[in-house]
Design brief:
alpha/beta, four-stranded antiparallel sheet
């Protein structure tokens, strides 16, 4: 049963979220396919308060990435908003009955899950970074853009900046490519930073370095941050509040400490039980998965 302290913390969290700079309200998104309509989001609601670190967690296919692509205005042409809206500082970004936006809002930036596919393989990373800067500073000279690009590389701790600007994505490691994407995101000077599974495919040491870099950038620039992940342990370490998603719906939300100590929904309890720990055996994890239905319809 929920303790009085837990109930109070959830109430405070909800009040803080209500005053958020980014609001997703009853958003339902579907996609038309040859096999019929696929309902990716089924009326989700959550918000991000100024400077907050919010985690969107759930297994693959739960709707986490579609939620972020909706905020960014990057939905495919076959997408349809069935209900709800997304607002930033009270300004509507996406709403049922209105055409989908053609470009991301300038106040929001996103770090994509697969850096090698997000970067253009036939252009140098310097050219790509300067392209982003040119859209933000259209009056800047090429020399100024180059100097700004070098500064961003230094900020994301990429050494030998002059050399790296000339490099192509295939010449860099996965961690370096992810740092380039972080630099591109910071170039926009966003108020909200979305990190969609930013450590996918990276070794554990590089994962830690990337998350530390995102945390430092968030603190330095005072951005709100949304971390999309299936890793509850990672979300627990990084986020102030967590939204748990399953099959296109929000099943639970609350402050991180409360959600870990007092999960209400069986799915959340299943995710927590399936999080590996040094004391867990493989059989115990498998049993937790089967008992709570994580990974199964």
């Amino acid at each position: 049963h929920m303790t009085a302290a837990s109930a109070k913390l959830r109430e405070v969290s909800s009040a803080a979220a209500a005053a958020g700079e980014l609001e997703v309200e009853n958003l339902a998104v579907s996609f038309g396919t040859r096999a019929g309509e696929v309902r990716a989001l089924k009326g989700i609601t959550f918000s991000l308060a100024p400077g907050e670190r919010l985690g969107l967690v759930g297994e693959s296919g739960s709707g986490k990435s579609v939620s972020c692509l909706s905020i960014m205005g990057l939905l495919d042409r076959n997408a349809q908003v069935a209900s709800g809206r997304v607002r930033l500082h009270g300004r509507t970004l996406i709403e049922v009955g209105k055409p989908l936006p053609k470009s991301p809002p300038p106040e929001v930036a996103m770090i994509f899950q697969y850096p090698r596919t997000a970067l253009n393989p036939i252009r140098s990373v310097g050219a790509q970074l300067m392209d982003v800067l040119a859209t933000i500073e259209p009056g800047a000279s090429r020399a100024q853009l180059r100097q700004r690009a070098l500064g961003l590389l230094e900020e994301v701790r990429i050494t030998r900046g002059e050399e790296r600007l000339k490099a192509y994505p295939f010449e860099l490691s996965g961690g370096q490519c992810q740092r380039i994407l972080i630099a591109m995101a910071l170039a926009r000077k966003p108020e909200v930073l979305i990190a969609d599974e930013p450590t996918t495919g990276l070794d554990v040491v590089t994962q830690r370095a990337i998350m530390d870099l995102i945390a430092e950038a968030r603190d330095a620039h005072g951005m709100g941050c949304i971390l999309v992940t299936h890793d509850l342990a990672l979300a627990g370490e990084f986020c102030d509040r967590i939204v748990v998603m399953k099959q296109g719906e929000v099943v639970e939300e609350g402050p991180t400490t409360v959600l870990f100590d007092d999960p209400r929904h069986p799915y959340t309890r299943g995710l927590l039980a399936a999080t590996p720990a040094l004391t867990h055996s493989l059989d115990a994890l498998r049993g937790a998965l089967l008992e709570t239905g994580v990974g199964h319809d």
